[in-house]
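Hey, can you fold this one?
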Amino acid sequence: MNSTHLLRPHHGSHKTLWFGVLGTIVVIVGSIFLAYAQTQKKEAEKMNPTKSVPSNADLQKQLTKDQYHVTRECGTETPFHNAYWDNHKAGIYVDLITGEPLFSSLDKFDSGTGWPSFTKPISPENVVEKRDSTHGMERTEVKGKMSDSHLGHVFDDGPAPTGERFCVNSAAMRFIPVEKLKEEGYGQYLSLFQPPQGQQQQAQRD
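Sure. Predicted structure:
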């Protein structure tokens, strides 16, 4: 006589399945948080003026010949033959080595000299002025505070409102356009390029 055996569900298999699903969820969530943390770290590294400055030996390997000559040997690039003398895009210029914000396109003007010229730095505390008596001239050198890089010179023949002309070598800076400020870790500077709230409301009404 054949007897029929009813198959009963094994509760252990259900537990194993749930543990598997739970483990998969934990792995996925962990991966998302890890990816986010890595992204945040990369953005922080793009703009980290407090990070240590590489040695001159390392900079010689990392920078081009012109960049090293300007930043570490107080060199001067060729006028009208450099990256930013005729750059009219909106954005900010940062220290090539440390990423310190130096100048804004809002303060850039055509000085006719062939070098990028600005009426003032974004933050005065990011640049250092130093007496320069080389080449038989009395000038005021401008250097990056954290990087100690030679940027250029400042003169008192600039336009209003400051009357100053910061004449800077392109080779000492990196330009970041407005549309990439947030991506590069400089999102707080977007406000420089946005009209005041009253003007925004007026524009919306118009």
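The first helix runs from residue 11 to 46. Let me know if you want another pass with a different chain boundary.
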